[in-house]
Amino acid sequence: PNIARLLSTNQTDVAARLLNNTLISGHRAIMMKQATASILALLASASIAQAACYADYKAKRDNPLRLHYGVVQVMGECSRANAAATLAPRLAADGWQLLEVMETFDDDGLAQRRADAGDYYLRY
Length: 124
Prior knowledge:
By secondary structure, the protein is α+β, with helices and mostly antiparallel strands. A three-stranded antiparallel β-sheet has the order 2-1-3. The chain has five helices and three strands; from the N terminus they run αααββαβα. The relative contact order is 0.14.
């Protein structure tokens, strides 16, 4: 509808009716819901980003037999099963066979394993 006549008036009751229009209120509610959803998504992604997960493992190669110990970062669920499922194909691509995922841990356990893992520290 044409509201030019209503906008040009100085009557406060007309302006109040225009500002409290249900269409405007509906848009305001939608914008608030979208803003709330965006903030929640941002907070969730920040907490996920902080929750780092790592696993230490043993692998081997045959002919001649070679063994190595390594540390890998794990994406997704921080479990031994998930670490094994994601690590085995990475190792196989280089001719290694995963023997065992020993443990999963967070940032606190990372530094103490660095020297033991050597060249296989966060390699895969």
